[in-house]
Structure formats: C-alpha cells, structure tokens
Predict the structure.
Amino acid sequence: MVPLSYYLVLSGFLFACGVTGFLIKRNIITIFMSIELMLNGVNLSFVAFAAHWHSLAGQVFVFFVMVVAAAEAAIGLAIIIAVYRTRETLNVDQVNLLKL
Amino acid sequence: MLNVHLILFLAFGAVCVAGAVNLLAQTHPINSALSLIAVMAALAGEYLLLGAEFVAAVQVIVYAGAIMVLFVFVIMLLNAGVEEHTQGSRVAILFGIPGVLLGSILVAWVVLQHSGTESVPAGALKGDPVTIGQLLFHQFLLPFEITSVLILIAIMGAVVLASKPPTSPATAPARKVD
C-alpha cells in the first residue's frame, strides 16, 4: 500500500526536472527531451489518480497524451532538422531571428 | 511480511529520480537521451504497480521504443556535440535555486500532509487491453478518431518540414512560406 501522495510527489518532481531542463539547457534537442519528461510526469499522476478514483478514463487519457507526444516529437524533430539546415547550429542562443 | 509494493515503488522511483537528475547534469545530448529512456522504463514499472498493464506496455513500446529512437536518430543525424556553455544570469542562480528548493519542499510537504492516509493498493485498477479498448471504442470514439487525423497531419507536416529545400533558390520557383 503506497499512499497516493507519494506518486504525486514523484510526478511533481519529474515535472519540475522537465521545467528546469527546459530553462537551463542550451541544446535544442535536450530542451525537447525535457518537454517529454514533463509529459511523463503528468502521465504518472493521471495513472495514479485513475487508480485512486477507480476510473479507467485516466488511463485512456494517458493513451491520448502519448499519441499527442508522438505527433509532437515527429513535428518537433522535423523543425529541429530544418533549423539545423538553415543555421548550422543546435544552440538556442544562436537561433534568435525569426527570418531566415 | 515486508511491504513489497512500497519497496518496488521506491526502487522504480529512485531510478526515475536518478534518470531525471542525470538528464539535467549531462552535457552531451546522447547521454541525456539514454537517461530519459531509463526514466521511461522505470515509469512503466510504476504503471504496472498501479495495475495499468496496457499503459505500461504502450509506454515501453511507443515512448521508450519509437519516440526515443527518433530522438537518438536525430542526434546522430545532426552529429550533435557537447553543449556550449553560455553564462547564465547571476540573479537567477542567487534567487532561483533557493526559491525552487523552498517551493518544492513546501508543495511536497502540503501534498504529503493532506493525503497521507489514503493509499493505493497494488494493481488497484485492472487496465488490461480489453477494457481499455472497449472504453476507447465506445466512450472515447470521437477523440480517438480525431487523434488519428492529428497523426496523419503530423506525418505530412514532418515530411514537408524535413524535406530538402530547392537546391538553388534563384532558379527554383519561389515557395510560398506562410
């Protein structure tokens, strides 16, 4: 028997690590991985609440979050490739202009 | 009898925390990607503890398998090297780190204080593929169909975005970018 709050604290920690990585990392790919970490933290709290409230809807929502994350990864990595092709860098500090 | 559930939770949770911290500490993106895979695998274990069998399987197959392979593929394709260090703001370091520590301790304390008595038994809710599938194709049919359209648009968008631009912009017909 594990209290629900333990799961919530772990989920919050993963989300906080994702936010921190998003803010402090300078490599665009690592920033993108931090977003995935945030989504994983949210998924854990979805599943924990689903078990707590005895409703399977939470688990179905995790499925939808994963689908959106897959779509986001495909689009985001394509954008990263396009950025690298025009800028020749992955450092976000050097990607500071909207025009090509 | 020892509380096996709690021990397993703590073991998987420790792997999660170590992986997440390692993701922040590493400077090379490939190391960050590998620690993210460790986090996702450990999270699949947590899902199994909660009885979400289908979600755990999908987590391993889709997240740790497909999405992370895509990440590693792009890291190797672009030959991403060690992150360049840029100097951060001094104020952010002075006030940010204590502020984050204080905030997280406060949130953790409040959460632990207010829901300490309710506990989730191991395998509390059976989320096997049959039940999830029935829910998905009855109650959540419309969102399911919409996500299929979303995936289709994402595939086309990825192909358009990552495709090679015309080699010589002067001779090639001007592409409308909007």
Observations:
- Chain A has one domain: 4-94.
- The mean pLDDT of chain A is 89.
- The first helix of chain A runs from residue 4 to 24.
- The domain at 4-94 of chain A is CATH 1.10.287.3510 (Helix Hairpins).
